Amino acid sequence: MAAASKREQIIDQALKLFYQHGFNATGVDKIISEARVSKKTLYNHFRSKNELILAVLRKRDELFRNNMMRETERMAVQPRERLLALFDVMGNWFHEETFSGCMFINASAEFSDLKDPCHILCAEHKRLICDYIEELAKQAGAQDPLELAKQLNLLIEGAIVNAHVEGDLEAGQRAKRMGEFLVDLALK
Amino acid sequence: MAAASKREQIIDQALKLFYQHGFNATGVDKIISEARVSKKTLYNHFRSKNELILAVLRKRDELFRNNMMRETERMAVQPRERLLALFDVMGNWFHEETFSGCMFINASAEFSDLKDPCHILCAEHKRLICDYIEELAKQAGAQDPLELAKQLNLLIEGAIVNAHVEGDLEAGQRAKRMGEFLVDLALK
DNA sequence: TCTATGGTAAACCTAACGGTATACCTTTAA
DNA sequence: TTAAAGGTATACCGTTAGGTTTACCATAGA
After folding, report:
1. pLDDT digits (tens, 9 = 90+) for B5-29
2. What's the CATH superfamily of B54-187?
3. A119, A158, A160: residue with CB nearest B155
4. Domain coordinates of chain A in residue numbers?
């Protein structure tokens, strides 16, 4: 099998395990066993477990944001409606069986030092999501697109935590109702 | 030294370490060394590391909510103002040097199974906080105190994540502005 | 005064951790 | 055809994990 494919195989399995059980709780032995590769192969592709974690987070960021944007733009056409569709996309995610919170919030909990490369990647991910919301807010003609984006982003993060910690699957709808007020306010 | 005191000593040090570095990343050897007790003593008081974690979470819940209520009620007298003072209390917390996010959100990330005793305790903590906000909302004469409480709770959780993951210390103020809007709406 | 009780240090247990080394096998391209 | 590249399994490394055991010491209540 091609090297690139092995690499993806490792990342994909590591992503599943890290997401479901956490980073420190998941050993490399478990990863190679699930990915059906040898330890040598893993260490050929990644210098250390930490490098693998970074690769996993980068892939997750890519997958998550692509999916978020694709779904949002599929569900609504007008910018204002797209801002609100964001909450529906989140709500659907909460209802998935494998939902286990936001991987980047989870990672920040385990790598809490703000200067830790993993934590930096998490902050970057959140910033990119905020950028996307700001772009939608601009298209919708918001008075202060950045402020609206930060507000909606805060609502989304609150909803994710609500859904994960308290198991409140309706958090997406609640956040959407709150978001509607803010969007109306920002667009009027 | 009295037994009860040793127990508290262990819990206090474990709390610091778990909060700063996470649960799985903190070994019992580190805890006993920092708490200056022998391993035997730790295992006399706690059946396992997991039991210690539960004890730590219970203590953190008690300390955190007591402080939250005390500070909120010290900062404002009128129920409406107390609802908003909650965000100031959070904002001040974010600015503390030792701030490392919400310990219960962090714990939920490492013990992601909803049926895990640790996760259950985290959900309970969040519910108790919501109960307190609901009580304030009732006193303020909100039309739907539970709904308002859930909304403000979501804002608080969003602000905590914002502050921790992105290092945005102004998240408390942003959440307060959003909260003001919702409180006005719920009281009119 | 005696004896639990609960403390101590330190050795020890097994299992798992992240990571390396060895030896061999398969694919692929010059 | 051959040799490099990258795969495999497996054994191994030192360290650390959670947890137990041993032997001894200090205090306090009957």
Report:
1. 889 999 999 999 999 999 999 999 9
2. Tetracycline Repressor, domain 2 (1.10.357.10)
3. A158
4. 1-46, 56-187
